[in-house]
Write a structure and sequence with these properties.
single chain, alpha+beta, Elongation Factor Tu (Ef-tu), domain 3, Alpha-Beta Plaits, Ribosomal Protein S5, domain 2, 5-stranded antiparallel β-sheet
C-alpha cells in the first residue's frame, strides 16, 4: 500500500504515470481513500487530496507525473544517521526474511540505512535514535518472522581537524618492471560548512593534469576512515600546491597512494579531534518532578536551554550527547512514576571533551585486542 498526495491535476484509475526518479512507467490500478483502517474504493483523486495505491514499486519522496512531463517536487531533507546497531539472524530462514525486511524498510524510510561491515561481516542498521532502530527490529520479528539478535548501539562519531598543516609526501616503489612514483605537496585546513573541499593550485604542470583526479580520489578515500580512530573525517579542505612526477613510473595508482600518504602526514599535524552527535531533547513532566528531571539531564553532560510551565506540566529543553541517552526512557519513567515523556532529534556535532576522548581511545584499543 502506497500513500500518495496529488498536487496538480487528477489521478484516475487506468491512467499511466511516470516515476521521475527512475523513469519507469506505472499503470494506476486500484485507488482507495483511507479512513483509519477502513478502505473506500474511489475512481479518482483530485488535486490537494491524499489517497492510496496498490502494487507500486517506489521510495518515500518520489514524484510521479504524466508521461512527457519532467517536473519534480523538492526532495525532503534527510539527515545523516547518528546511531548504528549490528544485527545477526538466528538461522537461514531468518536471514532470508531479514533481507526482505531491510529492503522494504530502506525504501519506505530514507533515514533508515543498512550495509554489511567489511571488518566484521555483520549487517549494520543505522538510524536517528535508539527507539527508531528498536521499532524496526521489532517489526522484523512481528511482520517478517525474522528472529534476530542485536549488538550494542554505536554512536556515529566523526573526526575533524582544528588547525592548518603542511604536507610533502613522496610515494616511491620499485619492482621488477615499471615502478611507482608520485610527490604531492600542499596543506590541509579545517572548514566549517562543507564536508570536503579539494583545490588544485599547481602551476607549471608539476603534476600532469591527468593525475589531478587521482590525487583527489586518494584524498577522498582517506576520509572514510580517519587515521586517529577510524571514524569518518569531515570539515576538511585540501589544497595541493606542488608535486613531482616521473615520465615512466608515474601512474594514477601511484598518485592515489601519494595522496593517501600525504593526507596521513598532514592530518596528524593538524590537531585531529573527535566530534559527537548532540541531540535536542524535550522532556514533558509534571511540575513536581521538574528538579529531579533537570538533575538527570545535567548528569548526562546535558546543557539545559530552557524550561516552560504549561499548566500542571513542565516542558524542559536540553542539548545532550547521544552517547549519554541510551536507556534514558527507563530512568525517566522511574524518576517520574511513569508520568513524563521525552522527544529527541539530532541537533549538531560538537567536540568530545578530553576525558571522554581518552575513554574512546582506550575502548577502541581493547576492541582491537579482542579482534586480534
Amino acid at each position: 500500500l502506497t500513500y500518495i498526495r496529488v498536487y496538480q491535476g487528477t489521478l484516475a484509475k487506468g491512467m499511466t504515470m511516470v516515476n521521475i526518479r527512475n523513469g519507469k512507467k506505472v499503470k494506476v490500478g486500484r485507488l482507495v481513500r483511507m479512513h483509519a483502517d477502513q478502505m473506500e474504493d474511489i475512481d479518482k483523486i483530485e488535486a490537494g487530496y491524499i489517497g492510496a495505491l496498490f502494487g507500486i514499486e517506489c521510495a518515500s519522496g518520489d514524484t510521479f507525473a504524466s508521461p512527457g512531463m519532467s517536473l519534480t517536487m523538492t526532495s525532503m531533507f534527510v539527515p545523516e544517521p547518528v546511531i548504528s546497531l549490528a544485527i545477526v539472524p538466528k538461522d537461514n530462514k531468518s536471514q532470508i526474511n531479514m533481507s526482505k525486511a531491510l529492503g522494504r524498510f530502506t525504501r519506505e524510510d530514507p533515514t533508515f540505512r543498512t550495509y554489511v561491515s567489511d571488518e566484521t561481516n555483520e549487517t549494520i542498521i543505522e538510524g536517528m535514535g535508539e527507539l527508531h532502530l528498536e521499532v524496526y527490529v521489532e517489526r522484523m520479528r512481528r511482520e517478517y518472522t525474522a528472529e534476530v539478535s542485536t549488538g550494542k548501539p554505536r554512536v556515529a562519531y566523526r573526526e575533524t581537524i582544528t588547525q592548518k598543516a603542511q604536507f610533502n609526501y613522496i610515494h616511491k616503489k620499485q619492482t621488477g618492471g615499471a615502478g611507482q612514483f608520485g610527490r604531492v605537496e600542499g596543506y590541509i585546513e579545517p572548514v566549517a560548512e562543507e564536508e570536503f573541499i579539494f583545490e588544485n593550485k599547481i602551476t607549471g604542470g608539476a603534476i600532469p593534469t591527468q593525475f589531478i583526479g587521482a590525487c583527489e580520489k586518494g584524498f577522498k578515500q582517506s576520509l572514510a576512515k580517519g587515521p586517529k580512530m577510524g571514524f569518518p573525517v569531515t570539515g576538511v579542505k585540501i589544497v595541493i600546491t606542488d608535486g613531482a612526477s616521473h615520465a615512466v613510473d608515474s601512474s594514477e595508482m601511484a598518485f592515489q597512494a601519494a595522496a593517501r600518504g600525504a593526507f596521513k602526514e598532514g592530518y596528524t599535524k593538524a590537531g585531529p579531534v573527535i566530534h559527537e552527535p548532540i541531540m535536542k531533547v524535550v522532556v514533558e513532566t509534571p511540575t513536581e518532578f521538574q528538579g529531579a528531571v533537570m538533575g538527570s539531564l545535567n548528569q548526562r553532560r546535558g546543557m539545559i536551554v530552557g524550561s516552560q510551565d504549561e499548566g500542571p506540566m513542565c516542558s524542559i529543553e536540553a542539548r545532550i550527547p547521544l552517547s549519554e541517552m541510551f536507556g534514558y526512557s527507563t530512568i525517566l519513567r522511574s524518576l517520574t512514576q511513569g508520568k513524563a515523556q521525552f522527544t529527541m532529534e539530532f541537533n549538531t556535532y560538537k567536540q568530545v571533551p578530553k576525558q571522554i576522548m581518552e575513554e574512546l581511545i582506550e575502548k577502541a584499543r581493547e576492541e582491537k585486542k579482542n579482534v586480534a
